[in-house]
Amino acid sequence: MIQLTPNDLPVGHPLPWSLLDGDGNLVLGSGNIIPDARDLALVFRHGTVCRDDAGDEAAQDLRPASGPLGLQVGTLLHLKLDGEAARPAASRLIGFIEQGLFVTWPQLGGRDLPLQAGDGVVLRGFSGQAIHSFTSTITAVCRSPFRYLVLSAPVQQHATPVRKAARVPTRLAAYLTEPGDDDGIDRSTARLSLLSDLSTGGALVQTTAPAPAPGSRVRLRFNLRTASLDSEVVIDGWVRMPPAGAAGDDADFPAFGVAFDVLAERELTLLQCYIYEQLLSSTRMPVQPAAAAAV
Hints:
Shape: globular
Structural class: mainly beta
Number of domains: 3
Distance between the termini: 41 Å
Helix content: 10-25%
CATH superfamily of the largest domain: predicted glycosyltransferase like domains
Number of strands: 19
CATH architecture of the largest domain: Beta Barrel
CATH class of the largest domain: Mainly Beta
């Protein structure tokens, strides 16, 4: 990823690429507009802003395909050596065959995890229905046309059903407007806001403008990246008071809560997938006992 500065972004014009946070999560999709300098300051308020050095084309061309355990191509995976208690590295499913998986080379803190053929690994991924934990063996290490691993078919599978979406910290840019009958939005005039907390029931919102009055109606339009695909989401809701200490009680960018209306199936599914990819990213994996791995 390439780290950006405020001078790199065209205020008032469509973005040439998607903006990402330091972990590669989507902040604002390409083609969107940052209206003015205060909106630009809000985007950079909570950390680094980056873009993908490979561009967005690969992600946009990727199409979901279901593999073992219902995991889709592009699914975030957490991987670590079997029997180790260390923090897992991040990888993604890039393909599969009947007896194995193809995954990107796992990285931890921006560095490749030292792995070799024959190593046993523990993985975890979210299928949209459950978080799947399983073990596998590295059958091949490939370096062309890029670095990736070939894994044996999953064994010792365990699935944890996901029934209720939790609240996760986020850093998503969203356009804030009043609900209307039109399906479009003028991004050159709409107020940009930042979602710093998200669940299927609502979000914590920061904006450069004064916070709307509690009980007023608002519409949020933003992009979610799930399974490496960007999808636009439009959700209506009503404003409520934020919890004490929300967003650090930032006087320059006031925070308020938005309680979502009942979500349509598409929006609910996208939010659930996004939330559990974020949970997967922040959850530590249990150590598999060496004795059990040998069975």
